[in-house]
Design goal:
- Helices cover 17% and strands 48% of the residues.
- With 237 residues, it is of the alpha+beta class.
- The protein has one domain.
- Strands 1, 4, 5, 7, 8, 11 and 15 form a seven-stranded antiparallel beta sheet that branches.
- The two termini are 15 Å apart.
Length: 237
């Protein structure tokens, strides 16, 4: 009887398994084949990244970007930072992050929010541009009908930026994060190197609708299965 109870508990808990919850990690870990995770009623998957820099050895890359989950999206953190080179040539860094967002449990996505904390000195500039495709899991830019990009820039006027649309169950996004130092700038009788930096980029998604009651039933099912396992274990002690 104890064996049957234990087996039933394991089977019941297993039948109610959920996708893993998003946790803090490098973008490289999020790029793992088949990786997906959830935040509330949103599932995130298909992460990829492309990078470039001038000089080329200064590229950040997925291993240098930390993904920090928040209640409705992510904060992407890295040391994007450039300074005019000694020969008065501009330096730059650029990362483009791609992923898919899917709404779960009967809700839909109706909003994208984008912001960052860029700063600059002299001729430097920073910016983040987000392209997105609605109602598809086909990656940007290969999706057939990319929507008008969201752009946040420093200097202003566009930081932060937000866009609303008719609710959809899935979409794909690409975030182009860029910093450029520009050339030296003059102050008084002297020339100084220009600078530009970004350390955090926030990307969030709003949902509409009420989660299906089945979500709570699945949670209860999983807790019941775990309870049966613990009960059986205690009886054997």
């Amino acid at each position: 009887m104890k064996t049957l109870l234990l087996a039933a508990g394991v089977a019941l808990a297993g039948s109610c398994a959920f996708a893993s919850v998003c946790t803090t990690g490098t973008l490289a870990s999020y790029e793992a084949s088949g990786f997906s995770c959830t935040i509330g009623n949103l599932q995130f998957s298909n992460f990829t990244n492309t990078d470039s820099a001038q000089p080329s050895g200064d590229a950040i890359g997925a291993g240098g970007i930390t993904v920090n989950p928040i209640s409705d999206g992510f904060v992407f953190s890295a040391s994007w930072s450039v300074t005019t080179q000694s020969n008065n040539t501009s330096s730059s860094q650029d990362d483009t992050i791609y992923y898919t967002v899917t709404a779960l449990n009967g809700v839909k996505i109706d909003d994208i929010f984008l912001s960052f904390n860029g700063s600059f000195v002299g001729n430097g500039s920073t910016g983040v541009t987000e392209d997105y495709c609605l109602a598809t899991t086909t990656p940007v830019p290969t999706c057939s009908d990319p929507s008008t990009p969201i752009t946040v820039t420093n200097p202003p006027p566009d930081n932060p930026s937000q866009v609303s649309f008719s609710p959809v169950t899935e979409l794909t996004v690409s975030k182009d994060i860029s910093v450029s130092s520009g050339t030296d700038y003059s102050s008084g009788d002297s020339m100084y190197p220009s600078e530009a930096s970004i350390s955090n980029v926030t990307n969030a998604f709003s949902t509409t609708g009420v989660p299906e009651p089945g979500t709570m039933l699945l949670l209860g099912c999983g807790l019941l299965g775990v309870g049966l396992v613990r009960r059986s274990t205690r009886r054997r002690e």
